[in-house]
Amino acid sequence: MTFEDFASAQSFFLIAGFVIAFIMGAVVNKTHFCTMGAVSDWINMGHTGRFRAWGLAIGVALLGVVILEMLGMANLNSSYPPYRNGQLIWAENLIGGILFGIGMTIAGGCGNKCLVRIGAGNLKSIFVFLIIGVVAYFMLNPFPGSDKTLYSILFYPWISPLAINMGASQDLGTVLGGEANAVTIRLAIGLILGLFLVWLAFKSKDFRSSSDFAMGGIVVGLCVLAAWYVSSNVMVNVDGENYPLSQYYGEWDMLAESEEGKPAIGAALGPQSFTFINPMGQAVGYAAGGFNSSLLTFGVMAFFGVLAGSLVWALVSRTFRIEWFASSGDVVNHVLGAVLMGVGGVLAMGCTVGQAITGVSTLAIGSFIAFGGIVLGSALTMKVQFYKMMYEEDASFGSALLTGLVDLKLLPESLRKLEKV
Question: Which residues span the domain enclosing 241?
Answer without folding.
Answer: 2-415
